[in-house]
């Protein structure tokens, strides 16, 4: 994404022409950026060639998932719907892992029938349930057990998952008991130890602590795990301050870990694969100058992009056409929804905007469309993929008739 002649464009397609042709709000993804992210990820860890399972929940667009599959990735799913989408996008079952604390009987049966690589169980009860279903169906099912390593991911509390107060995974004590239990079972095979300590992690330290915890517990089990699934959580640079997770350093720590543990590594990245591939194009509906605050009211809202309302997260906002005229006022960029949390960002000294001007919200490829809803009976935005300087509509704008 860059400005040329003051006009913002993705892969040489002007944001302005996208808005003109397809309307706003519109999600736009860059294929080149996607490819670069995936290649960079692979390159960083190539010394032990991990299985990279894209976390479908970060972006559930089947066409995009299909592109991700063509670039060599498998899938991490957390529901039957996501599993169906991964299969529809052509991902082979032997590259799919299933996570989540509350898999239902129906979901477990479906996963067993589809012969996916691993069901990563998160409780004793779930292991008993998988065993019961496998026994009825006379099958032997490959499972992982998710450990809660009790390490602090040092990220937002809402997206931290690896501490003992979180609902995810099992404690060390339960883990050790489950290893013994599963090793005696004829219907479940313990293939994997899995962890996922949280999301938007920018520092290697929490991962290093996690690896230490894994090393310790593996020694105690005396079990040889075919796979170690390290989850995802690699952070990206939302603030444009160049702070990103050092994948090379993480890779070195894993290499060290693998000296004692001869397992295949699985990753489940979501955000780091798609986060910076997407922008959300929006038009200014009104500008409202108040007594205490000034508002830029956009045609995009929290139903289209939930992260700021849900986590107070920051997404940069850029004008579609650059000008030198800077406003000396402070503006809050808000949506039209009847909620005070329906706001995106407060900006001082933004360039002067007029009603009907276009802006883009940056880095919305992950947890953008996948967290969107129809709140206020608002149709979901169109999704567009720019590939080889061509515009591909990969999901149509929802129509009001579909909602009413
Ligand atoms: C959400 C999630 C991921 C992906 O997290 P990112 O921060 O998007 O990389 C991976 N594994 C599990 C189990 C998850 O719940």
Question: What do these coordinates show?
Answer:
The protein is built from 12 helices and 20 strands. The protein is an alpha/beta fold and 404 residues long. The chain folds into 2 domains: 2-29 and 275-403, Lyase, Ornithine Decarboxylase, Chain A, domain 1 (Beta Barrel), CATH 2.40.37.10; 31-271, TIM Barrel, CATH 3.20.20. Strands 4, 13, 14, 15, 16, 17, 18, 19 and 20 form a 9-stranded mixed beta sheet that branches. The protein binds pyridoxal-5'-phosphate. Residues 55, 57-58, 76, 99, 196, 199, 231-234, 268-272, 366 line the site of pyridoxal-5'-phosphate (PLP).
Binned, the helix content reads 25-40%
Ligand list:
pyridoxal-5'-phosphate
Measure the end-to-end span.
37 Å
Number of domains: 2
Q: How does the helix and strand content classify structurally?
A: alpha/beta
Which regions have little confidence, pLDDT < 50, spanning 5+ residues? Answer: none
Oligomer: single chain
Number of strands: 20
Features:
single chain, 404 residues, alpha/beta, Lyase, Ornithine Decarboxylase, Chain A, domain 1, TIM Barrel, 2 domains, eight-stranded parallel barrel, 20 strands, binds pyridoxal-5'-phosphate
In short:
With 404 residues, the chain is an alpha/beta fold. Helix content is 29%, strand content 24%. The chain has two domains: 2-29 and 275-403, Beta Barrel (Lyase, Ornithine Decarboxylase, Chain A, domain 1), CATH 2.40.37; 31-271, Alpha-Beta Barrel (TIM Barrel).
